[in-house]
Design a protein that fits this description.
mainly alpha; two-stranded parallel sheet; 7 helices
Length: 180
């Protein structure tokens, strides 16, 4: 877990792989590691739009703890809810404090907006692409929030994400200036 902005140096073989991956358009990649490695990809991204999907940190922590406990590839790991919240905070701090330098490139959207369908219109408009609402499987949304209060750092970061979502979504829907 990296809690401060980190600038990655990418070796030649990795640069070639990244360049090849993004040369096949259109493309869409989803990987939580982008919260740390996005700057390594940026020189190769052309006409790229970035979507930051986030959840209530308590729900995310529950999901992280469950995934680590159940997934075969993490069978030797253990993680507490507190550690999962620190991971959540570190990842979203990277996005807000390091990567999101131009709101016009970004759309912030809550996970629940995608599950319920209330975010499909704004996502479609932002991406200038038709969104297939049938891809959402409601039964996969099984996480419930952990029953604890958030510390002020996590709570403040979650509020910043929600504010970014409000600003970026409103700008997309009205088609106006996206700078906040």
């Amino acid at each position: 877990m990296l809690d401060e902005p980190t600038d990655w140096t990418v070796e030649s073989p990795t640069r070639w792989i990244i360049a090849d991956l993004v040369s096949h358009e259109p493309y869409a990649y989803k990987d939580p590691r982008f919260s740390y490695t996005l700057n390594a990809w940026c020189p190769y991204l052309n006409r790229c739009k970035l979507v930051c999907v986030f959840r209530d940190p308590r729900v995310a922590a529950t999901s992280i703890v469950r995934e680590v406990a159940l997934a075969p590839y993490t069978q030797n790991l253990k993680i507490s809810a507190d550690h999962a919240l620190r991971v959540w905070r570190a990842m979203y701090r990277q996005i807000l404090d390091f990567h999101c330098t131009d709101d016009a490139q970004w759309l912030f959207i809550e996970y629940d907006q995608l599950i319920t369908g209330t975010g499909h219109e704004v996502l479609s408009k932002f991406l200038d692409a038709e969104i297939d609402s049938g891809f959402v499987e409601q039964q996969l949304n099984r996480s419930q929030p952990i029953g604890r209060r958030l510390d002020s750092g996590v709570s403040e970061l979650y509020e910043r994400l929600k504010a970014k979502a409000e600003v970026t979504q409103a700008a997309v829907l009205r088609g106006g200036d996206r700078r906040s």
